[in-house]
Amino acid sequence: MKIKIFTEGGKDIGLGHISRCSSLYNEAASRGISVDLIVYGDIVDVDFLNGINIINENWLDKEYLYNNITSDDYAIVDSYEATKEIYDIISKKTKKVLYIDDIGRTVYPEGIIVNPSLDASHIDYSKSQNGILLSGPEYVILRKQFRSLKKENISKEVKRVLIMMGGTDIRGLTPLIIDNICRNMLDIEFDIVTGSEEMEKINSQISKPKNITFHNNLDATQMMELMISCDLAITAAGQTIYELLATQTPFIPIKVIENQENNIKSLFEYNPEQIVLRYDDLDFLSNLNKALEIYSDIEYRKSYNQRYKDLVDGYGSKRIVDYLLKDKNKEYKINLRKIKSEDIKEVFDLSNQDYVRRYSINKDKIEWADHIKWFNSVLEDKSTVFYVVTDKNESFLGQIRYKIAQNSATVSISLSEKLKGKGLSKEILSKSIKKIFEEEQSVKDIIAFVSENNIASKKIFEGLNFKRVKDEDSMMKLILKKEDFYVN
């Protein structure tokens, strides 16, 4: 078995696709899988590609594909250049293919589509043949050095600012920012990440202020450490924004190319107040100064980080390779059964997980003594229907509880992190709804309360025809009528 990753990149194209493909390469290679990274472009002297088997070939040529891929190969394609014909050849000749797409650029043949951005709801993939789409924060592709990071503290003042306009800085913004921002803020240290050629070009054009340090060809660990050490970043709105989210570094994104618009839309889904600049705005420098002034407020930066807290955990590459290589239905055969007294500890542990408490009405940790009383009362409550989610081995994977009052049942659901990224949450919820409607004939509608900030859960409920009716206690109230469920 071999995985072949097809992409393009270089001086005139950029390194965004190369960066995320290298992450997928390293994830697969770490499992002992043979991997080729086949690149159309001019890739030379890029430190983060050290140790990667790069094949510089024009894979966009049909003859190359006919001669170099087989039915035993798995393929990953990350391209803005490939035609529909090229995708068809790869799909037909390989065992399984996965397409990386964050702009909805074409209709794809059979395979898996991955949108590695925060949100893909504004992109229509419905015309692609098989409809398999992996999207959301759990599929953001990052290098392994960016996994499960936490910033120790937020500085009272902004003392260090990171500037990243891409290796080639196609809009020439870096010298503009140096001359008009850095020179006027000598009490702030500026770290500028750029390519070697771009750094030489800037140094030949302008004199460098003493408060600037240039960095180029950083490896993943160096980049991660630099981001964590800075209080704020000014960045092009490309792949780098996801590394900044993972390191919990507040940032001011600048749209420098049209294909970054979807990244910006995704940010607004989670933070409607996100400040975004555009390189061609006539007031660009004035707006950047205003943004820096806003971000200088520590309370603003704390609030900013809270909106994105734990959003990107860095395990997207792992989940994507898992999905490419495995059949999720074989890995998890989901079952629902009624609660038993011996489930008390698993329910307690799950209920006290930080990610469960964060989106609950009561955010405080639960005491064991209180949990025992509550659990026993629920077991005896005839108006409560309590299901446990298990796999084929009867391992505990979550809980779904329905509180029945007259003709309505209010649902509460929490699932194990083992299921994160598996795309099974909607299936599990749907299965439980079907079960409650069949077992409790008096129930005519299901009520759910979802945190406004829990975008993923909101989309799952809405995908099952739940309708938002009003808000209560800072939670959205959604209702699913029985007749609406059966039109899904």
Structure description:
The protein has 488 residues and is an alpha/beta fold. It has three domains: 2-135, Rossmann fold (3-Layer(aba) Sandwich); 146-308, Glycogen Phosphorylase B (Rossmann fold), CATH 3.40.50.2000; 329-485, Gcn5-related N-acetyltransferase (GNAT) (Aminopeptidase), CATH 3.40.630. It has 18 helices and 20 strands. It has helices at 16-29, 62-68, 84-93, 173-180, 196-205, 220-229, 240-246, 261-270, 284-295, 298-308, 316-325, 328-331, 344-351, 354-358, 368-380, 425-439, 455-463, 482-485; strands spanning 2-10, 34-42, 54-56, 73-78, 96-100, 112-115, 133-135, 160-164, 189-193, 212-215, 232-236, 251-255, 277-278, 335-338, 384-390, 396-405, 408-415, 445-451, 467-472, 475-481. β12, α8 (261-270) and β13 (277-278) form a beta-alpha-beta unit. The longest helix has 15 residues, at 425-439. The protein is globular and about 80 Å long. The two termini are 38 Å apart.
